[in-house]
Amino acid sequence: MSERIVVIEGDGIGREVVPAAVSVLEAVGDFEFVEAEAGDAVEAETGEALPAETYETVADADATLFGAAGQTAADVILPLREAVGSFVNIRPARAYPGVDAVRPETDLVFLRENTEGVYSGHEDRLSADLSTLTRVVTTSASERLAEFACEYVTDRGESSFHVAHKANVMRETDGRFRDAVVDVADSKGVVAEEVLMDAFATRVCLNPEQFDVVVCPNLAGDVLSDLAAGLVGGLGLLPSANVGPDNALFEPVHGTAPDIAGEGVANPSAAILSAAMLLDHLGYDEAAADVNDAVESVLADGPRTADLGGDAGTAEVTEAILDRLE
Ligand code: NAI
Ligand code: MG
C-alpha cells in the first residue's frame, strides 16, 4: 500500500514551491497525496489558521510536506509539530558547488530539541516592569534526542557528534540536558563532544569543517542553524524535518517570501530537498539520493533562480531537476 502524504502549501511561495516538490515525489514514487489547508488565507476565510481537520489529517498520515504560513506561522507550525509528535528538528546546512557561499566548506546537520526549552510557552508578565520565562528541560526529552542523534550518526557510519550547550551558566537546565545527552551517548559507544554554544557560533563561522552533526537545545538550535544558513548562501536552499516516533513533517526553512510571492521566481530547491528528506525518512534511500543529486547538479550547472544570481523561474528549475531524474 502506498504511503499517505499530506500536502499543505500554505501561503505565499508555499503555493509555488510545494507543487514543485510534489511533482518530484510523483516522479520517483507512488504515493497517495492528501491536500490540506493552513495559514493566513484559510484564517481569513474561516477564522482558523489551523483547521481541526488539517491537524487530524496530519496526525493520521505517514508524512506531511508543508510550505510556509505567513503571519500565522507560529499558530500553524507549532501545533503541526505536535500533531506528528516531533521531538527532533533536523536542519542540514550544506554549501553546494556553484552556489556563492560565505563558507563553501560548510556541511552541517543540526539536531534540535523540538518540544521544550524556552519555547514551551511559559511566559508571565509579573508587573509593569517585569516579565519572566520558565525554561523547561526534561531528562526524558533530552535522552530521546540523544538516542536519535546516536542512531543518526551511526547510520552515517560515524561515531561522534557535538553537543552545544551553556551548562556553565544554566547549570540546572543545560546541565540536565548536557548530562542526559552525554550519558546516552556513552551507553551507545558514541562520543558526545561538548561545545559551549557561544564559542560554537564563532568557531563555526571561522572554520565550519570542524563540525558535522550538532545536537542543540531548542532556541540554540533555531538560532545556530539560521547562522549556518547564512554561511551556505541563502534560505532558498535549506530543507528541514520534524521527526516523531512514527510520523514526520518536512518543510523548507524559509517563509512565505511576500516580496516575490506570486511571481513564479521562488527557488524550489529547499522544498524539493525537504521532499528528499521525506523520501529518506520513509525508507526510499535511493530515491532520496537521486533527488539530492538532481538538485545538486542543477545548482552546479543551472538554470538558477534570481536568489542565486540566475534568471530562471520556479518552473524552469523544477523541469531541469525532473529532467535529471529521468
Ligand atoms: P522569508 O523566508 O519568507 O524571506 C526572507 C527573504 O528570503 C526574502 O527576501 C525572500 O524573498 C527570500 N527567500 C525566501 N525563500 C526563498 C526562495 N525559496 N527563493 C527565493 N528567495 C527566497 O522570511 P521573512 O521575510 O522573515 O518572513 C515572511 C513571512 O513568512 C512572515 O509572515 C513569517 O511569519 C513567515 N515565515 C513562516 C515560516 C514557516 O511557515 N515555517 C518560517 C519563516 C517565516
Ligand atoms: Mg528560525
Could you explain how this protein is built, in words?
The protein has helices spanning 14-28, 40-46, 52-60, 73-83, 139-155, 173-187, 197-206, 218-232, 269-281, 285-301, 314-325, and strands at residues 4-10, 32-35, 63-68, 88-94, 107-113, 123-125, 131-133, 160-165, 191-196, 213-216, 239-243, 248-252. It has 326 residues and is of the alpha/beta class. The strands form two sheets. Strands 2-1-3-12-11-4-5-10-8-9 form a ten-stranded mixed beta sheet, sandwiched between helices. Strands 6-7 form a two-stranded antiparallel sheet. The longest helix is centred in the middle third of the chain and has 17 residues, at 139-155. The protein is globular. The structure holds 1,4-dihydronicotinamide adenine dinucleotide and magnesium ion. Magnesium ion binds next to helix 8. Residues 222, 226 line the site of magnesium ion.
